[in-house]
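Hi V.,

You were right to ask for the full record rather than a summary. Here it is.
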Amino acid sequence: MASPRPAGPTPDSTSASALPVRLVWSQKSSGLQVRWSPGTPLIARMQAFLFLVRLAGLLSLTSRFLVTSALQEGLPESVVEALLRPSHVSERLVGLQVRGSNFTLGNMPFLILSGTIHYFRVPRDYWKDSLLKLKACGFNTVTTHVPWNLHEPRRGQFHYSGNLDLIAFISLASEVDLWVILCVGPYIGSDLDLGGLPSWLLKDSHMKLRTTHKGFTAAVNRYFDDLIPKIRGFQFQEEGPIIAMQMENEYGSYNLDKRYMLYIKNALLSRGIKTMLMTADTGQGLLKGHTPTVFATLHMKSIRQKTYEHLSSAQVRTAQRRGVFSFISVLMESVREMLKLRFSLNFYMFHGGTNFGFMGGAAFPGHRLPMVTSYDYGALLTEDGGYTPEYLVFQEIFRPDAGVPSFQHQDHRPKDTYAPLAAGHFISLWDTLIHQDDVLHC
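Predicted structure:
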């Protein structure tokens, strides 16, 4: 909104058309920025400031009016909490917090309904389709992990383009009105090779991964110095969609260095991270992976009373009692029960996608169990992004139990059937190892 510079300020010159100021939309922060006309007198700036304060107050009252109206219509509190979207929140001074046994966002009650989508496992052209399907199912938040090994495949060489354009993915989530929870690692697990740590770390024969070993922290510091400035402006407090960041992943089951998690916490805070920090562990590793003043969360496949007791004891030490944020793969009955208890939750995965190239890792439950190319993971969308019967079931659960308004997304993605491909020439992977340092000219 631009306006001509006024000839001179008057006591009544506080209308929008008379302000010596422009409200400019910032693509980076997805919000409005204030810009003054050159040479604007101080008194005129003060009058304009008072007008903008009234405008901000009006926007805040509008968002609160939406909540109040929903309550007056007889909707349960969990319904109202799930309705809170980025476009509804104008006050960005106070981010995600725990009050009593519930979350608040912008000082308003908030229920996290999240699903995980890995941008690096879904072709970029299909990101928006997956995000819209997430929203249409009733979710208000997308969770994604940041793979260090893909962003820095060689020491000091960083990549954030194409299918690794993290900023574009975050911006797209904001565009479709979804919040974002970012898992920045440095170790993210996620069934990736070396849990998302770059393999070049192992060139150091003295390397101690996921510890405060100087070789490891030097590499992490360099990585965070490159990554964090890119995402810092997308935090909730900066008018962005990021409401929380997860540190590491299930460190309680590793737990080789008691100073390590505190180091990661300080590494993020010192680089300007303001949003809520979280840890994530299984029930068995919850207490070992917990970090003071950081919100503890659970990776769960089943609900056990003892696990909740451990979680409660961890939260008490951080002046937070409950408000569980659970990564779960559970039956529909469990989800219904959690919604009735106003538990926030995340589906891992909502859309699994594909392990392209050699990014897939392996598990060792007594024997080697490598990841296959498909990362279907029993997600609510198929590997290629199609609807599953479970998607439709949970969509119906969320609408009455969480009060999600009906939103339809038509799938217009083209699909094709490819003929079988027979390899005429091939070589064993083991036979290529002697050439791994050779330079290939294609």
